[in-house]
Amino acid sequence: MYICQSLKFEFVKQNIWYSIRRSLLSVMLVVLAIQTFSQSSYPFIVDSMNVIRIPNQKSERLNTFYDKMNALLRGSKNQVSILHIGGSHVQADMFSHQVRSHFDTLIQNHHASRGLIFPYETAKTNNPYNYKVTHKGEWTPSRNVRDTRVAQLGMTGIAVTTKDTLAEITVILNPTDEKHRWTFNKLTLIGYADSSLVEPVLIVNDMVYKASYDSVSSSYVYKIPSLAESFTVKIVQNDTIPHQFTVNGFVAENDDKGFVYHAIGVNGASVPSYLSCEFFERDMALIHPDLVIFAIGINDAASDSFSDSVFISNYDSLIAKIERVVPDCAYIFITNNDSFKKIKGKKSSYYVVNKNGLRVQKDFYELAKRHDGGVWDMFALMGGLSSMKQWEAFGLAKKDKIHFTAKGYRLMGDMLYRAILESYNQSMLNR
Prior knowledge:
It is built from eleven helices and 20 strands. The protein has helices at 2-35, 60-74, 88-91, 94-104, 271-275, 280-287, 308-325, 356-370, 378-381, 388-393, 406-429, and strands at 52-53, 79-86, 115-117, 132-136, 140-143, 158-162, 168-172, 184-193, 198-204, 207-209, 212-214, 219-228, 230-237, 245-253, 258-265, 291-295, 330-334, 340-344, 349-353, 374-376. The strands form four sheets. Strands 3, 5, 6, 8, 11, 12 and 14 form a seven-stranded antiparallel beta sheet that branches. It has a six-stranded mixed beta sheet with strand order 1-20-17-16-2-15, sandwiched between helices.
Protein backbone atom coordinates (compact mmCIF):
# COMPACT_ATOMS: atom_id res chain seq x y z
CA MET A 1 0.00 0.00 0.00
CA TYR A 2 2.82 2.38 0.95
CA ILE A 3 4.68 1.56 -2.24
CA CYS A 4 1.56 2.21 -4.30
CA GLN A 5 1.04 5.57 -2.58
CA SER A 6 4.71 6.45 -3.10
CA LEU A 7 4.50 5.58 -6.78
CA LYS A 8 1.29 7.61 -7.09
CA PHE A 9 2.96 10.59 -5.41
CA GLU A 10 6.00 10.27 -7.66
CA PHE A 11 3.74 10.09 -10.74
CA VAL A 12 1.82 13.21 -9.68
CA LYS A 13 5.09 15.00 -8.87
CA GLN A 14 6.53 14.16 -12.28
CA ASN A 15 3.36 15.33 -13.98
CA ILE A 16 3.51 18.60 -12.07
CA TRP A 17 7.13 19.17 -13.07
CA TYR A 18 6.31 18.19 -16.66
CA SER A 19 3.47 20.71 -16.69
CA ILE A 20 5.71 23.40 -15.21
CA ARG A 21 8.44 22.70 -17.77
CA ARG A 22 5.94 22.87 -20.62
CA SER A 23 4.49 26.13 -19.28
CA LEU A 24 7.95 27.63 -18.86
CA LEU A 25 8.84 26.48 -22.36
CA SER A 26 5.80 28.26 -23.81
CA VAL A 27 6.72 31.44 -21.93
CA MET A 28 10.35 31.15 -23.12
CA LEU A 29 9.17 30.81 -26.71
CA VAL A 30 7.21 34.04 -26.33
CA VAL A 31 10.15 35.76 -24.62
CA LEU A 32 12.34 34.84 -27.59
CA ALA A 33 9.67 36.19 -29.93
CA ILE A 34 9.53 39.46 -27.99
CA GLN A 35 13.33 39.81 -28.07
CA THR A 36 13.27 39.89 -31.86
CA PHE A 37 11.74 43.37 -31.60
CA SER A 38 13.84 46.27 -30.43
CA GLN A 39 12.36 49.41 -28.95
CA SER A 40 11.41 52.00 -31.54
CA SER A 41 14.06 54.41 -32.77
CA TYR A 42 11.62 57.29 -33.15
CA PRO A 43 11.95 59.97 -30.42
CA PHE A 44 8.23 60.85 -30.37
CA ILE A 45 7.02 57.28 -29.68
CA VAL A 46 6.39 56.59 -26.00
CA ASP A 47 7.73 53.03 -25.70
CA SER A 48 6.57 52.71 -22.09
CA MET A 49 2.98 52.88 -23.36
CA ASN A 50 3.40 49.82 -25.57
CA VAL A 51 1.50 47.62 -23.12
CA ILE A 52 -1.97 46.17 -22.70
CA ARG A 53 -3.45 48.24 -19.89
CA ILE A 54 -6.14 46.61 -17.75
CA PRO A 55 -8.31 49.19 -15.93
CA ASN A 56 -9.65 46.54 -13.52
CA GLN A 57 -6.09 45.47 -12.60
CA LYS A 58 -7.05 41.92 -13.54
CA SER A 59 -9.06 40.62 -16.49
CA GLU A 60 -10.61 37.19 -16.21
CA ARG A 61 -11.55 37.33 -19.88
CA LEU A 62 -7.98 38.04 -20.99
CA ASN A 63 -6.63 35.41 -18.60
CA THR A 64 -8.98 32.88 -20.19
CA PHE A 65 -7.66 33.86 -23.61
CA TYR A 66 -4.05 33.59 -22.44
CA ASP A 67 -4.81 30.13 -21.04
CA LYS A 68 -6.01 29.10 -24.50
CA MET A 69 -2.91 30.67 -26.02
CA ASN A 70 -0.73 28.79 -23.53
CA ALA A 71 -2.49 25.51 -24.35
CA LEU A 72 -1.77 26.09 -28.03
CA LEU A 73 1.91 26.83 -27.40
CA ARG A 74 2.18 23.73 -25.22
CA GLY A 75 0.59 21.56 -27.89
CA SER A 76 -2.67 20.66 -26.13
CA LYS A 77 -4.86 22.93 -28.29
CA ASN A 78 -5.04 23.05 -32.06
CA GLN A 79 -6.09 26.59 -32.94
CA VAL A 80 -6.85 29.97 -31.36
CA SER A 81 -9.15 32.42 -33.15
CA ILE A 82 -8.59 36.20 -33.11
CA LEU A 83 -10.82 38.82 -34.74
CA HIS A 84 -9.53 42.33 -35.56
CA ILE A 85 -12.38 44.64 -36.57
CA GLY A 86 -12.33 48.27 -37.69
CA GLY A 87 -12.57 50.74 -40.56
CA SER A 88 -10.10 51.71 -43.28
CA HIS A 89 -7.07 50.91 -41.10
CA VAL A 90 -8.23 47.29 -41.14
CA GLN A 91 -9.65 47.08 -44.67
CA ALA A 92 -6.14 47.78 -46.00
CA ASP A 93 -4.97 44.86 -43.81
CA MET A 94 -1.38 46.09 -43.53
CA PHE A 95 -1.56 46.69 -39.78
CA SER A 96 -3.56 43.52 -39.05
CA HIS A 97 -1.59 41.35 -41.49
CA GLN A 98 1.65 42.32 -39.76
CA VAL A 99 0.23 41.03 -36.47
CA ARG A 100 -1.14 37.92 -38.23
CA SER A 101 2.22 37.11 -39.79
CA HIS A 102 4.03 37.41 -36.45
CA PHE A 103 1.54 35.14 -34.69
CA ASP A 104 1.97 32.61 -37.50
CA THR A 105 5.67 32.26 -36.66
CA LEU A 106 5.04 31.28 -33.02
CA ILE A 107 4.21 27.67 -33.89
CA GLN A 108 7.24 26.28 -35.71
CA ASN A 109 6.66 24.32 -38.94
CA HIS A 110 2.91 24.99 -38.83
CA HIS A 111 0.76 27.49 -40.71
CA ALA A 112 -2.80 27.92 -39.49
CA SER A 113 -5.73 29.07 -41.62
CA ARG A 114 -5.78 32.44 -43.36
CA GLY A 115 -9.28 32.96 -42.00
CA LEU A 116 -12.04 35.35 -43.04
CA ILE A 117 -11.51 37.34 -46.25
CA PHE A 118 -13.66 39.49 -48.52
CA PRO A 119 -13.20 40.14 -52.27
CA TYR A 120 -12.90 43.93 -51.98
CA GLU A 121 -11.70 44.21 -55.57
CA THR A 122 -15.05 42.83 -56.74
CA ALA A 123 -16.77 45.57 -54.71
CA LYS A 124 -14.64 48.18 -56.53
CA THR A 125 -12.68 49.25 -53.48
CA ASN A 126 -9.11 48.75 -52.26
CA ASN A 127 -8.17 45.12 -51.72
CA PRO A 128 -5.46 44.05 -49.23
CA TYR A 129 -2.11 43.49 -50.94
CA ASN A 130 -1.58 40.10 -49.30
CA TYR A 131 -4.23 38.23 -51.33
CA LYS A 132 -5.24 38.86 -54.91
CA VAL A 133 -8.82 39.00 -56.18
CA THR A 134 -10.14 39.13 -59.74
CA HIS A 135 -13.67 38.70 -61.03
CA LYS A 136 -15.80 38.23 -64.11
CA GLY A 137 -19.30 39.51 -64.74
CA GLU A 138 -21.19 42.38 -63.17
CA TRP A 139 -21.35 42.63 -59.39
CA THR A 140 -23.15 45.27 -57.28
CA PRO A 141 -21.58 46.21 -53.92
CA SER A 142 -23.38 46.97 -50.66
CA ARG A 143 -21.59 48.50 -47.67
CA ASN A 144 -22.55 49.12 -44.07
CA VAL A 145 -21.57 52.78 -44.44
CA ARG A 146 -24.36 53.38 -46.96
CA ASP A 147 -28.10 53.53 -46.36
CA THR A 148 -28.94 52.24 -49.84
CA ARG A 149 -28.13 48.54 -50.20
CA VAL A 150 -29.20 45.72 -52.48
CA ALA A 151 -28.08 43.01 -50.05
CA GLN A 152 -28.28 42.09 -46.39
CA LEU A 153 -24.94 42.30 -44.67
CA GLY A 154 -23.05 39.98 -42.35
CA MET A 155 -20.08 40.47 -40.08
CA THR A 156 -17.79 41.68 -42.87
CA GLY A 157 -20.04 44.73 -43.31
CA ILE A 158 -19.82 44.48 -47.10
CA ALA A 159 -21.28 42.29 -49.85
CA VAL A 160 -21.37 41.85 -53.62
CA THR A 161 -24.45 40.71 -55.54
CA THR A 162 -24.88 39.42 -59.08
CA LYS A 163 -27.38 38.05 -61.61
CA ASP A 164 -24.76 37.76 -64.33
CA THR A 165 -24.51 34.33 -65.97
CA LEU A 166 -20.73 34.86 -66.36
CA ALA A 167 -20.16 35.82 -62.72
CA GLU A 168 -17.18 34.38 -60.86
CA ILE A 169 -14.61 35.44 -58.26
CA THR A 170 -11.01 34.21 -58.12
CA VAL A 171 -8.83 34.49 -55.00
CA ILE A 172 -5.07 33.83 -54.79
CA LEU A 173 -3.95 33.58 -51.16
CA ASN A 174 -0.17 33.93 -51.75
CA PRO A 175 0.35 36.42 -54.59
CA THR A 176 3.52 38.07 -53.27
CA ASP A 177 6.39 36.69 -51.20
CA GLU A 178 4.36 34.70 -48.67
CA LYS A 179 6.17 31.47 -49.71
CA HIS A 180 3.08 29.26 -49.80
CA ARG A 181 2.21 30.24 -46.25
CA TRP A 182 -1.58 30.25 -46.53
CA THR A 183 -3.39 27.11 -47.67
CA PHE A 184 -6.85 25.59 -47.28
CA ASN A 185 -8.69 22.33 -47.71
CA LYS A 186 -12.02 23.67 -46.54
CA LEU A 187 -13.72 26.78 -47.89
CA THR A 188 -16.85 28.37 -46.47
CA LEU A 189 -18.69 30.82 -48.70
CA ILE A 190 -20.85 33.12 -46.58
CA GLY A 191 -23.75 34.20 -48.75
CA TYR A 192 -27.24 33.49 -49.97
CA ALA A 193 -29.36 33.06 -53.10
CA ASP A 194 -32.88 34.22 -53.95
CA SER A 195 -33.63 30.86 -55.56
CA SER A 196 -32.49 27.24 -55.39
CA LEU A 197 -31.94 27.50 -59.14
CA VAL A 198 -28.71 29.44 -58.65
CA GLU A 199 -25.70 27.85 -56.96
CA PRO A 200 -22.01 28.62 -56.38
CA VAL A 201 -19.52 25.95 -57.42
CA LEU A 202 -15.87 25.83 -56.40
CA ILE A 203 -13.09 25.37 -58.93
CA VAL A 204 -9.63 24.36 -57.66
CA ASN A 205 -6.89 23.17 -60.04
CA ASP A 206 -9.51 22.64 -62.78
CA MET A 207 -11.57 20.38 -60.50
CA VAL A 208 -15.19 21.36 -59.79
CA TYR A 209 -16.70 20.90 -56.31
CA LYS A 210 -20.27 21.37 -55.17
CA ALA A 211 -21.13 22.72 -51.76
CA SER A 212 -22.93 21.36 -48.76
CA TYR A 213 -25.38 24.09 -47.78
CA ASP A 214 -25.68 24.95 -44.10
CA SER A 215 -29.04 26.65 -43.64
CA VAL A 216 -28.28 27.66 -40.03
CA SER A 217 -25.26 29.77 -40.92
CA SER A 218 -26.45 30.53 -44.47
CA SER A 219 -23.17 29.31 -45.85
CA TYR A 220 -21.83 26.98 -48.51
CA VAL A 221 -19.13 24.56 -47.35
CA TYR A 222 -16.63 22.95 -49.72
CA LYS A 223 -14.08 20.30 -48.80
CA ILE A 224 -11.24 19.37 -51.12
CA PRO A 225 -8.85 16.37 -50.91
CA SER A 226 -5.57 18.31 -50.67
CA LEU A 227 -4.28 21.73 -49.64
CA ALA A 228 -4.62 24.55 -52.16
CA GLU A 229 -3.59 28.20 -52.38
CA SER A 230 -6.17 29.63 -54.79
CA PHE A 231 -9.77 29.11 -55.83
CA THR A 232 -12.51 30.32 -58.13
CA VAL A 233 -16.17 30.48 -57.18
CA LYS A 234 -18.44 30.43 -60.21
CA ILE A 235 -22.12 31.34 -59.93
CA VAL A 236 -24.13 28.81 -61.96
CA GLN A 237 -27.61 29.75 -63.12
CA ASN A 238 -29.83 26.70 -63.64
CA ASP A 239 -32.74 28.59 -65.17
CA THR A 240 -33.46 30.64 -68.27
CA ILE A 241 -34.22 33.58 -65.98
CA PRO A 242 -31.12 34.71 -63.99
CA HIS A 243 -31.42 34.74 -60.21
CA GLN A 244 -29.63 36.85 -57.64
CA PHE A 245 -26.70 35.58 -55.57
CA THR A 246 -24.90 37.49 -52.79
CA VAL A 247 -21.40 36.90 -51.39
CA ASN A 248 -20.70 38.20 -47.87
CA GLY A 249 -17.23 36.68 -47.57
CA PHE A 250 -15.07 33.55 -47.53
CA VAL A 251 -13.41 31.59 -44.72
CA ALA A 252 -10.37 29.65 -45.98
CA GLU A 253 -9.44 26.96 -43.45
CA ASN A 254 -7.08 24.08 -42.79
CA ASP A 255 -6.47 21.80 -39.80
CA ASP A 256 -2.94 22.97 -38.99
CA LYS A 257 -1.99 24.28 -35.56
CA GLY A 258 -1.72 27.98 -34.91
CA PHE A 259 -3.42 31.34 -34.53
CA VAL A 260 -6.21 32.10 -37.01
CA TYR A 261 -6.21 35.90 -37.32
CA HIS A 262 -9.39 37.22 -38.95
CA ALA A 263 -9.50 40.89 -39.99
CA ILE A 264 -12.58 42.77 -41.21
CA GLY A 265 -12.83 46.43 -42.07
CA VAL A 266 -14.85 48.81 -44.22
CA ASN A 267 -13.61 52.24 -45.25
CA GLY A 268 -15.50 54.86 -43.23
CA ALA A 269 -17.13 52.35 -40.88
CA SER A 270 -18.26 53.37 -37.39
CA VAL A 271 -19.75 51.32 -34.57
CA PRO A 272 -23.33 51.94 -35.84
CA SER A 273 -22.19 50.67 -39.24
CA TYR A 274 -21.59 47.21 -37.78
CA LEU A 275 -24.72 47.40 -35.63
CA SER A 276 -26.70 47.76 -38.87
CA CYS A 277 -25.47 44.39 -40.23
CA GLU A 278 -28.39 41.96 -40.12
CA PHE A 279 -26.30 38.78 -39.99
CA PHE A 280 -23.53 39.95 -37.66
CA GLU A 281 -24.27 37.36 -34.98
CA ARG A 282 -24.86 34.57 -37.48
CA ASP A 283 -21.38 35.06 -38.95
CA MET A 284 -19.77 35.48 -35.53
CA ALA A 285 -20.70 31.85 -34.83
CA LEU A 286 -18.70 30.74 -37.88
CA ILE A 287 -15.36 32.04 -36.61
CA HIS A 288 -16.13 31.94 -32.85
CA PRO A 289 -13.29 34.28 -31.78
CA ASP A 290 -11.37 33.74 -28.55
CA LEU A 291 -10.23 37.37 -28.68
CA VAL A 292 -11.74 40.42 -30.39
CA ILE A 293 -9.46 43.40 -31.05
CA PHE A 294 -11.68 46.47 -31.45
CA ALA A 295 -10.31 49.20 -33.70
CA ILE A 296 -13.54 51.04 -34.50
CA GLY A 297 -13.71 54.69 -33.48
CA ILE A 298 -11.79 56.98 -35.82
CA ASN A 299 -14.90 57.61 -37.94
CA ASP A 300 -17.21 57.94 -34.92
CA ALA A 301 -14.95 60.68 -33.55
CA ALA A 302 -14.75 62.58 -36.86
CA SER A 303 -18.09 64.30 -36.22
CA ASP A 304 -18.32 67.68 -34.47
CA SER A 305 -21.42 66.33 -32.70
CA PHE A 306 -19.54 63.36 -31.23
CA SER A 307 -21.14 62.07 -28.01
CA ASP A 308 -19.23 60.02 -25.44
CA SER A 309 -22.38 58.45 -24.05
CA VAL A 310 -23.67 57.44 -27.49
CA PHE A 311 -20.27 56.04 -28.47
CA ILE A 312 -20.07 53.91 -25.31
CA SER A 313 -23.71 52.81 -25.64
CA ASN A 314 -23.14 51.73 -29.25
CA TYR A 315 -20.11 49.67 -28.21
CA ASP A 316 -22.14 48.12 -25.39
CA SER A 317 -24.70 47.00 -27.99
CA LEU A 318 -22.04 45.57 -30.30
CA ILE A 319 -20.41 43.65 -27.46
CA ALA A 320 -23.81 42.30 -26.42
CA LYS A 321 -24.17 40.85 -29.92
CA ILE A 322 -20.81 39.13 -29.59
CA GLU A 323 -21.52 37.75 -26.14
CA ARG A 324 -24.79 36.20 -27.25
CA VAL A 325 -22.63 34.00 -29.48
CA VAL A 326 -19.29 33.82 -27.61
CA PRO A 327 -19.97 34.43 -23.90
CA ASP A 328 -16.34 34.07 -22.75
CA CYS A 329 -14.76 36.17 -25.52
CA ALA A 330 -11.82 38.40 -24.48
CA TYR A 331 -11.43 42.04 -25.59
CA ILE A 332 -8.61 44.42 -26.40
CA PHE A 333 -9.64 47.98 -27.27
CA ILE A 334 -7.34 50.04 -29.51
CA THR A 335 -7.68 53.76 -28.91
CA ASN A 336 -7.93 56.05 -31.93
CA ASN A 337 -4.71 57.27 -33.47
CA ASP A 338 -4.09 60.99 -33.32
CA SER A 339 -5.65 62.62 -36.39
CA PHE A 340 -6.43 65.94 -38.02
CA LYS A 341 -9.47 67.38 -39.76
CA LYS A 342 -9.25 69.09 -43.12
CA ILE A 343 -10.94 72.50 -43.09
CA LYS A 344 -11.85 74.07 -46.40
CA GLY A 345 -11.24 77.82 -46.36
CA LYS A 346 -12.31 80.43 -48.90
CA LYS A 347 -8.92 80.45 -50.61
CA SER A 348 -7.20 77.29 -49.34
CA SER A 349 -7.60 74.31 -47.06
CA TYR A 350 -5.85 73.73 -43.76
CA TYR A 351 -5.71 71.06 -41.04
CA VAL A 352 -6.68 71.23 -37.38
CA VAL A 353 -6.06 68.55 -34.79
CA ASN A 354 -9.11 66.44 -33.87
CA LYS A 355 -9.36 66.84 -30.09
CA ASN A 356 -12.03 64.15 -29.96
CA GLY A 357 -9.11 61.74 -29.88
CA LEU A 358 -8.62 62.64 -26.21
CA ARG A 359 -12.28 61.94 -25.44
CA VAL A 360 -12.33 58.60 -27.24
CA GLN A 361 -9.15 57.60 -25.42
CA LYS A 362 -11.01 57.93 -22.09
CA ASP A 363 -14.07 56.18 -23.52
CA PHE A 364 -12.04 53.10 -24.43
CA TYR A 365 -10.69 52.85 -20.90
CA GLU A 366 -14.26 53.03 -19.64
CA LEU A 367 -15.33 50.30 -22.08
CA ALA A 368 -12.45 48.07 -21.01
CA LYS A 369 -13.43 48.58 -17.38
CA ARG A 370 -17.09 47.73 -18.10
CA HIS A 371 -16.32 44.66 -20.19
CA ASP A 372 -13.33 43.22 -18.34
CA GLY A 373 -10.96 43.96 -21.19
CA GLY A 374 -7.62 45.58 -21.92
CA VAL A 375 -6.57 48.76 -23.74
CA TRP A 376 -3.76 49.21 -26.22
CA ASP A 377 -3.38 52.99 -26.05
CA MET A 378 -2.26 53.81 -29.58
CA PHE A 379 -3.05 57.48 -28.98
CA ALA A 380 -0.59 57.78 -26.06
CA LEU A 381 1.94 55.42 -27.64
CA MET A 382 2.30 57.49 -30.80
CA GLY A 383 2.91 60.66 -28.77
CA GLY A 384 -0.52 62.07 -27.96
CA LEU A 385 -2.30 65.11 -29.35
CA SER A 386 -0.78 66.51 -32.59
CA SER A 387 1.79 63.69 -32.81
CA MET A 388 0.49 62.70 -36.26
CA LYS A 389 2.54 65.56 -37.71
CA GLN A 390 5.74 63.90 -36.53
CA TRP A 391 4.64 60.55 -37.89
CA GLU A 392 4.08 62.24 -41.24
CA ALA A 393 7.46 63.98 -41.12
CA PHE A 394 9.21 60.62 -40.58
CA GLY A 395 7.34 58.95 -43.46
CA LEU A 396 5.08 56.90 -41.18
CA ALA A 397 1.78 58.69 -41.91
CA LYS A 398 0.06 59.99 -45.02
CA LYS A 399 -0.62 63.63 -45.86
CA ASP A 400 -4.29 63.29 -44.87
CA LYS A 401 -3.02 62.99 -41.27
CA ILE A 402 -5.48 60.16 -40.60
CA HIS A 403 -3.93 57.10 -42.23
CA PHE A 404 -0.47 55.61 -41.95
CA THR A 405 1.96 54.62 -44.68
CA ALA A 406 2.79 50.95 -45.20
CA LYS A 407 5.89 51.49 -43.05
CA GLY A 408 3.78 53.06 -40.30
CA TYR A 409 1.19 50.27 -40.34
CA ARG A 410 3.91 47.63 -40.14
CA LEU A 411 5.46 49.43 -37.18
CA MET A 412 2.06 49.55 -35.46
CA GLY A 413 1.62 45.83 -36.12
CA ASP A 414 5.03 45.06 -34.61
CA MET A 415 4.21 47.04 -31.49
CA LEU A 416 0.74 45.57 -30.95
CA TYR A 417 2.12 42.04 -31.33
CA ARG A 418 4.84 42.73 -28.79
CA ALA A 419 2.33 44.26 -26.34
CA ILE A 420 0.08 41.18 -26.52
CA LEU A 421 2.99 38.79 -26.00
CA GLU A 422 4.27 40.73 -23.00
CA SER A 423 0.74 40.81 -21.55
CA TYR A 424 0.53 37.04 -22.03
CA ASN A 425 3.87 36.56 -20.26
CA GLN A 426 2.81 38.68 -17.30
CA SER A 427 -0.45 36.76 -17.04
CA MET A 428 1.34 33.41 -17.00
CA LEU A 429 4.00 34.48 -14.49
CA ASN A 430 1.61 36.20 -12.08
CA ARG A 431 -0.69 33.20 -11.59
